[in-house]
Amino acid sequence: MGIEVKVPALGESITEATLGQWLKKPGDAVALDEPIASLETDKVSVDVPSPVAGTFGEALVGEGDTVNVGAVIATVSEGGAAAPAPTSAPANAGAQSSTQASSPAPAADKNTGPLPSHGTDITDEQAQALRLSPAVRRAVQESGVDPASLTGTGKDGRLTKEDVAAAASAPIAKASDAPAPSAAAPMQAAAPATGNRSEERIRMTRLRQTVAKRLKDAQNTAALLTTFNDVDMTEVIAARARYKDLFEKKHGIRLGFMGFFVKAAALAARDVPAVNARIEGDEIVYANYLDVSVAVSAPKGLVVPVIRSADSMSFAEIEKAIAAYGKKAKDGTLTADDMKGGTFTISNGGAFGSLLSTPIINPPQSAVLGMHRIEERPVVKDGQIVARPMMYLALSYDHRLIDGREAVTFLVRMKEAIEDPTRLLIDL
Fold it and tell me: What percentage of the chain carries pLDDT values higher than 90?
């Protein structure tokens, strides 16, 4: 019997997780603290490290199974390499028997045609070299794609089942494709669809399920409304251009737009405290601090780490906090504590090209600010039509707590601060 591998503590109030992917298979050598499995919680993905250096023994649960904190999910044999564990592990645990590995490729499906010959037979050595999990290896063998030609989007560049599925469903150009019919040709009935028209059913990750539930709960509970304004980014762009080199040299971080908006939100929230409040039962709780949830994109979905006491932070401290969270989101190392709390959210859809949106609040918060792309548009200044870099701002809010006048005032205060950044320095 090997050393037991247990589900680690996952953070306050989190008692269970879903086993997302096995990163090792029975018989693989593992180092001390090397990740052997990835767990998905309501908020983050967590790697399960090996408790000892040795050989992966047996997977006791399958990918997609729900596991509780403290549950034994695998065994590891301490010391030198050991024989692979018996194939009595659950079929969906990601381990594939030698009989399955040596069986011929599946017969051609009448809808999809024969599978390509390349990539259908992956040896253990190739799978280890490419760091393929058992589930990904099985997907490669079933789809016939060449894993060496793909770029992985998983942690540390690993291939995921979604990467393989996307490559398998991508259209392939054929040299024998017939030319388009002549315009003079008589009209004919449309030919029936051909080619790969298969569908794939993938279980939602626990994170995606939680996001879906929380957003729908927000719509069902809050009286949502969105108000808009636009802001001239000329002065902020000029300030960044003027001081970006000195700022980076002194603080070791680039000066971005988000720092200006966080500072402007803190200034506006002092005038409109309801935006930074929440409803608890029949009471309104006003926070005398600003903990800003900054929405960032992670490989498995949108996450919102929290910049705490952002109202008392400098530009450099805000930018460093945002950069650190962005890196952790990309690496999949955000913790539950990183996303705990938050009194107000800022979401920058402009980073992806969004022109306008109506963001949904993140309960129990009562408001969320949506930033959008900067776009040159004609505006009237001093009686003249001029081109200015403009950005639309959207504030979605819970009308049970925040009145329309307060929402508009909040956006006007932000507009004033962004168009005249000196206000941020003199607290005006």
Answer: 42
Give domain limits for the chain. 3-169, 206-426
Q: What architecture (CATH level 2) is domain 206-426? A: 2-Layer Sandwich (3.30)
Q: How many other CB atoms are found less than 10 A from the CB of residue 51?
A: 17
Indicate which residue of 109, 217, 331, 403 is catalytic: 403
217, 245, 337, 399: the catalytic one is 399
Orientation of helix 257-271 relative to helix 404-419, angle to 10°: 140
Residues 376-423 have pLDDT tens digits of 999 999 999 999 999 999 999 999 999 999 999 999 999 999 999 988
Q: Is the pTM here over 0.70, yes or no? A: no
Position 187 scores a pLDDT of: 57
Q: From the centroid of its chain, how far is CA 330?
A: 8
Assign 155 to helix, strand or coil. helix
Q: From CA 35, how far away is CA 45, in angstroms rounded?
A: 12
pLDDT digits (tens, 9 = 90+) for 240-270: 999 999 999 999 999 999 999 999 999 999 9
Active site residue 118: no
Token pair for 90: 């659950």
The owner of tokens 């594939």 is: 96
Dig out the tokens for 361 from the structure.
């609040």
Q: In the annotation, is 399 catalytic? A: yes
* Closest C-alpha to 319, from 256, 272, 240: 256
Dist CA 173 CA 171 (whole Å): 7
Two tokens, residue 81: 């390499």
Q: What angle do CA 268, 301, 211 make, to 5 degrees?
A: 70
What is the CATH architecture assignment of 3-169?
Beta Barrel (2.40)
